[in-house]
Write a structure and sequence with these properties.
The complex is a heterodimer of chains A (109) and B (115).
Chain A lengths: L3 E4 L2 E5 L4 E7 L3 E9 L5 E6 L3 E5 L2 E6 L4 E6 L8 E9 L5 E3 L3 E6 L1
Chain B lengths: L3 E4 L2 E4 L5 E7 L5 E7 L5 E8 L5 E2 L10 E5 L2 E6 L8 E8 L8 E2 L3 E5 L1
Parallel strand pairs in B: 2-11
Antiparallel strand pairs in B: 1-3, 3-8, 4-5, 4-9, 5-6, 7-8, 9-10, 9-11
The chains are: A mainly beta (109), B mainly beta (115).
């Protein structure tokens, strides 16, 4: 099956700092999503981004499908950004969403 | 986008018992998926539930342990049977329309603790 690797596994930030999370995948994909899991376990859709660049407020994401990676940028981080960020992909010609291991982010006030 | 209502949101169960988790979608969807997230881990797909056919289980998951129903295009249940403490996890349902470029949506999750 497809491999999805996220880095770094853990990230500690001071409030107001910027950060970049990376997602590498081992095969061609036709779906890539970024999620934020809050402390209550709920998965929040951040971006559906199989290719290109999108921005939503302080968050933006870029996927370079030909090079098999995606980046999630968090700017001016806030304590509410704490949680686990997951990248998930669907392999081309597949229908299953495969998750990376996640990046655990802690934003300190 | 699909809105998924999942319940219960959390439960504490005795070992040896079973728990049924329900997911209701606000629109008709072809594919529904069930995931397990063990403590501190990522999400792992349990099975794909399609209306009108048997669920398709991933390696390591069996129907006797995780029976799934999909009676119509807006509803599905997952039962965790004969529970042990190792079944303590978050269980999540998800939907995604068929086709190569469609976004997945998740229910709120069920946090299960087996004692």
């Amino acid at each position: 099956g497809i491999q999805v690797e996220q880095s770094p596994p853990d990230l500690i930030l001071q409030e107001g700092a910027n950060s970049t999370l990376r997602c590498n995948f081992s095969d061609s994909v036709n779906n890539l999503q970024w999620f934020h899991q809050n402390p209550w376990g709920q998965l929040i859709n951040l971006f559906y981004i199989p290719s290109g660049t999108k921005q939503n407020g302080r968050l933006s994401a870029t996927t370079v499908a030909t090079e098999r990676y995606s980046l999630l940028y968090i700017s001016s981080s806030q304590t509410t950004d704490s949680g686990v960020y997951f990248c998930a992909v669907v392999r081309a010609a597949g229908n299953k969403l495969t998750f990376g291991g996640g990046t655990r982010v802690l934003v300190k006030p | 986008s699909a809105v998924i209502s999942q319940k219960p949101s959390r439960d504490i169960c005795q070992r040896g018992t079973s728990l049924t988790i329900q997911c209701q979608v606000d629109s008709q969807v072809t594919m529904m998926f069930w995931y397990r997230q063990q403590p501190g881990q990522s999400l792992t797909l349990i099975a794909t539930a399609n209306q009108g056919s048997e669920a398709t289980y991933e390696s390591g998951f069996v129907i006797d342990k995780f029976p799934i129903s999909r009676p119509n295009l807006t509803f599905s249940t997952l039962t965790v049977s004969n529970m042990s403490p190792e079944d303590s996890s978050i269980y999540l349902c998800s939907t995604r329309e068929t086709g190569p470029n469609t976004e997945a949506f998740f229910g709120q999750g069920t946090r299960l603790t087996v004692v």
